[in-house]
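To: structure subgroup
Subject: Chain for Friday's discussion

All,

I'm putting the inputs and outputs inline so they're searchable in the archive.
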Amino acid sequence: MPGRVVRLAAPLVALLLAGCIHPPAAKDYTVFRAADPKSILVVPAINRSVEVTAPDYYLSTITFPLAERGYYVFPVHLVKRVLEDDGLSDADLVHAGDPVRLGSLFGADSILYVTIERWDSKYVVLSTTTTVSISYRLVDARSGQELWKETRTMAYSPQASGGGGSPAGLVALLVVQAVASAVEKAAPDYMPLARAVNNVSVVEAHQGLPAGPHIDQYRKDQKDF
């Protein structure tokens, strides 16, 4: 499924926006509901970005939205450590391995494979755009069958406002814009975007995950999933 891009004026707004003007077709949850996963094992993410620290930072953002959706989530950093001790420190090897064997190692009934497609900040003229793009794939740890997949992209560009219509005001506006862009480029804040991508991907009706067994909506949200 192609990623859907949402461009944001501020990271806080990312938590409120989802999808695009033409929403995609609703997902088929027949296989998901038959498997009825109650726990999710999140394995280390494959990193296709140029930021080598992206996977570790990203791992700290994924537990909360999954738990809020009603699933037990195995402690992500403990899982990473156990896999490393078992000789599986390479995320590509983990993703290519047998999900049934992996699930049995932890007693999980589903596995979430994450790929970081983009985690970058680009400066063009007076504008800096920070982008996070994530692909998700949830697999049944008992059968290896794919239960759900999603790809989502969000971007943040700091915008200056005000300044009036006078030449002096315009110059001031350009200076403010240049400073804001330089600050974003020097120290881009990926975490709000990563959290927003996770939140929207997990909860969006007809696209995200149906409610898990640890919240009241469990098995009551069929009209939306």
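Points worth raising on Friday:
The helical segments are 11-14, 30-35, 54-68, 76-85, 91-96, 99-106, 167-186, 191-203.
The longest strand covers residues 110-124.

D.
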